[in-house]
Design a protein that fits this description.
The protein has 246 residues and is an alpha/beta fold. It has nine helices and seven strands, in the order αααββααβααβαββαβ. The strands form two sheets. Strands 1, 2, 3, 6 and 7 form a five-stranded parallel beta sheet that branches. A two-stranded antiparallel sheet has the order 4-5. The N terminus is likely disordered. Bound molecules: zinc ion (ZN) (2 copies). The site of one zinc ion has 8 residues, from helix 3.
């Protein structure tokens, strides 16, 4: 399975320098329809081509878990104990300014940023990631979190991807049955314990090829726990996509 395109992990600075000098970071707090969410140039899709091309892209990474590596091939962790996912793709690195956009989108209650972020994912995700996929399942939020935030960012991104690539989105078969505390600051083992039994699958997924989708992948604990639940429901192949890898 092909890893993310090896590219420089450091974004070129020219565009950002000009942007910051002329407008200031305060513009990142604004959003105007039909304008780029970062530089305010005209951009019907919500993010202009110059800003999109300056976002940090990963270098060589593990094809099984997308962990950044100094070489191509499986990482030591995947060699020791194979994860529950067959492959992971993340077209961007979780770094400024994408990290700022994602925080403004989720934490700042700005669902309108879902459109440019969804287009970004659909444009930059390799075609092989969605080849032969039977259904795309976005990581579900617990009901309480969904009511608080008002939208599920993974679902918005999945909708954009499915629309663009004519894929089937499934937002019903998996539910988050346990409200789990934040994973931040927890060890890998504690993260796993925190998420154990968090997802329930109501559909029979026998023989299906499932693509899971999240906005950001950090250690992969959430996606692996969900992959486990989906495999128990019969899925034959489970892969995952995140817009950004932390
Ligand atoms: Zn721009
Ligand atoms: Zn790995």
């Amino acid at each position: 399975m092909a890893p993310c395109h090896p590219q420089s992990p450091t974004p070129s600075s020219g565009h950002w320098t000009r942007l910051l000098q002329s407008w200031g970071a305060v513009l990142l707090e604004r959003f105007y329809p039909g304008r780029c969410a970062l530089c305010l140039d005209p951009a019907p899709a919500g993010l202009c081509a110059a800003c999109a091309s300056d976002l940090a892209r990963p270098g060589p990474s593990c094809p099984t878990c997308a962990e950044p590596l100094p070489f191509a091939g499986d990482c030591p962790s995947c060699q020791r104990s194979p994860p529950r996912l067959d492959a992971v793709w993340a077209p961007f690195v979780y770094a400024w300014p994408l990290s700022h956009l994602l925080l403004a989108y989720k934490g700042g209650g700005r669902p309108q940023l879902g459109r440019p972020l969804g287009s970004l994912l659909a444009e930059h995700l390799p075609l092989i990631a969605t080849d032969g996929v039977d259904r795309v399942i976005p990581v579900p939020l617990h009901e309480r979190r969904l009511v608080y935030r008002g939208f599920n960012q993974a679902e918005d991104l999945a909708r954009a991807l499915c629309r663009q690539r004519d894929l089937c989105i499934d937002t019903r078969s998996v539910t988050r049955v346990r409200a789990t505390p934040s994973q931040q600051g927890l060890s890998r083992r504690a993260r796993r314990a925190n998420l154990r039994g968090a997802f329930a699958v109501s559909a029979d997924l026998s023989g299906e090829r499932i693509l899971l989708l999240d906005d950001v992948m950090t250690t992969g604990t959430t996606l692996n726990e969900l992959a486990d639940a989906v495999r128990r429901a019969g899925a034959a192949r489970v892969t995952a996509v995140a817009l950004a890898r932390a």
